[in-house]
Every structure is written in structure tokens, then in C-alpha cells.
Specification:
- The protein is mainly α.
- Helix content is 72%, strand content 0%.
- 45% of the residues are buried.
- It is elongated.
Amino acid sequence: FEEAFYWFGRSAALGYALAQCKIGLCYEKGIGIEKNLTDAVYYYQLSADQGEASALYYLGFCYANGLGVEKNQDKAIEYYRKSAEKGYAAAQNNLGYCYFSGLGVKKNYTEAVKLYKLSAQQGYPPAQYNMGFCYEKGIGVQKKTQEMLKWYRLASSQGQKKATAALERLHR
């Protein structure tokens, strides 16, 4: 991990946006280097300033959770939106959750489902679970058993524990 960090650092120093994001992730998680959330945010910002979708997402996550920065839901939404517009599945899902829960935006189930679906169609398990949940409860969509089962099964097949638990609950 230390060697990977070294090479990411070399690339990041040359301005390579994805490497800057990876360095940020290493700092955030303590991979190959001591955990440092301030440095993580610094590298995410460098990468995000170049439009790197994953860095925009991670920066939004940092602002949403107060990791290395003061918690700021407006900035979280801003970064999630920029990343989601670039098609980044995790950002689409998280932005969908913001609309679902009314976090930093007006609650809007239709918009939440639209974003969940974009993410789920890319194979992102948390979004697939969220789609199953929406179809099960009729939130933002009409209740549809087949759609619910389809999304729960897809998520469960990728190890999404909440989806597996939902399927087990439904088959009792």
C-alpha cells in the first residue's frame, strides 16, 4: 500500500486528477499513509477542480459528514450534483437519498427515484436496494412486486445485506 501511495503521489504531483483523488482516498482511509482528513479534502479538491467525478462525490461525502471540513449540506448537494451529472453512480444514489429524506433540498420522491434508477441501472447495489424499497412501499412509484423483487435480487446478488434481509422478510 505504501508503494501504491508513492506512485499515486508522483502522478498527483504531475496534476493527474484521478491520482489526486486516489491520494485523497488514501488519506481518508489511512491506506499506505497515516489517516489525515484535512489532507484528504485537499487532494479531493485538487481533483474536483479538474472535474473528476469520483473526487466530486468524495468531496460531497466529506461535506455531508463533516470529514476534514465543517459539515455543510449545501456544499454536499453541490458536489453530489456535479458528480451525478457526470454519471457517477454513488453520487446519483446519495443525491437521490438527499431528495428522499429532504437533506439540503426539498423532499421530492419522484426526483429521488429518478436518481436511484440512474444509479441502479449502472449496477450500484445501494441504489438497487433503494429502488426495491421504493417499489415495495410505493414511494415515488406505484407498488410493483416484480420490480421490487428484481431490484432486491440484483442488490442481494452483489452482497447488499439490506436487500438480502428484505428478501428473507418477504419470503416468510
